Amino acid sequence: MALALFDLDNTLIGGDSDHGWGEFLVNHQIVDSAYYRRMNDEFYRDYLNGALDMNRYLAFALQPLAKLSPVELTRLHAQFMEEVIAPMWLPKAELLLQKHREQGDLVMVITSTNRFVVEPICRKLGVTELIATELEQRNGYFTGRVSGVPSYKEGKVVRLKAWLTETGNNLTGSCFYSDSINDLPLLQIVDRPVAVDPCDALRRIAEERGWEIISLRGRLD
Questions:
Q1: Do 70 and 144 share a structural domain?
Q2: Could you count the other beta carbons within 10 Å of the beta carbon of residue 200?
Q3: Same domain, 49 and 77
Q4: Proportion of the chain above pLDDT 90, given as a percent
Q5: Looking at 9, 16, 18, 183, which residue is catalytic?
Q6: What is the pLDDT confidence band of residue 218, given thresholds at 50, 70 and 90?
Q7: Are 97 and 170 members of one domain?
Q8: Distance in angstroms (rounded) separating the CA atoms of residues 113 and 18
Q9: What is the reported pLDDT for 220?
Q10: Is-catalytic flag, 9?
């Protein structure tokens, strides 16, 4: 089977789940609203500009998870799915995933966002193969620390190559769909890179290199 790889945020969904989770925490007064919103927005701007300090961001973003129980987090995430993720849903993305399944491709989401936030979203999309930033747990509780290499920028390549070695799969006939300049390292090693509603920096590179550019936004025809 050929690999069909997908970024999640602003690619398969019409927004950023990681930033959206931060906004959700602010709106429900689970964190210090003014400070957390300011920092969350600052980190998101850095991400969009390809300048995010991932370690510094994770140290900030994972602290609320360490302060909440598994029961509380499960309840909050269900509410987050309804309030934040549902409005981001893209029917065209679901159709594209289905097209790849019908072609016999192995569909995988590979995202820099942490597994806690994205796994339920991927489950709703029907995607079971997932590479995400993994979080350290102790006795069922998050510690606020990362486990292993964050799947961000070159980290996506590192994590994917480890998965390929473990599973015996390869990149022959592979494709990768992404909106972000941060994913350039992975886009450059697949057989068919596809820019999806790309940021300006990625659009320029896609146009220069003749990569396919598509949109998953808007209504179905």
A1: no
A2: 8
A3: yes
A4: 98
A5: 9
A6: confident
A7: yes
A8: 6
A9: 80
A10: yes
The verdict on residue 221 lying in a domain is no
- Which residues, 6+ apart, have CB-to-CB distance to 188 below 8 Å? none
Q: Quick: pLDDT tens for 39-91.
A: 999 999 999 999 999 999 999 999 999 999 999 999 999 999 999 999 999 99
pTM: predicted TM-score of the whole model, two decimal places: 0.96
Domain containing residue 160: 3-14+89-214
The residue assigned the tokens 């995430």 is 77
Task: Name which of 211, 166, 176 is nearest 105 in CA terms.
Answer: 176
Catalytic (active site) residue 221: no
Residue type at 46 in one-letter notation: D
Q: What is the C-alpha separation between 64 and 30, in angstroms, rounded?
A: 8
Give backbone dihedrals phi and psi of 113, rounded to 5 degrees, phi first.
-70, 150
Q: With 80 as the cut, is the pLDDT of residue 221 above it? A: no
- 188, two tokens: 């450059």
Yes or no: say if 171 and 3 are a contact pair by the CB < 8 Å rule: yes
Look at the chain and report how many structural domains it folds into: 2
Q: What are the beta bridge partners of residue 196? A: 214
Output the six-digit token pair for 131: 């590479």
Residue corresponding to tokens 């069922």: 140
Axis crossing angle, helix 115-125 with helix 91-102, rounded to the nearest 10: 70
Nearest alpha carbon to residue 194 among 208, 182, 173, 210: 210
Query: Does residue 138 share a domain with residue 80?
Result: no
69 plus 149 within the same structural domain: no
**What does the chain come to in residues?**
221
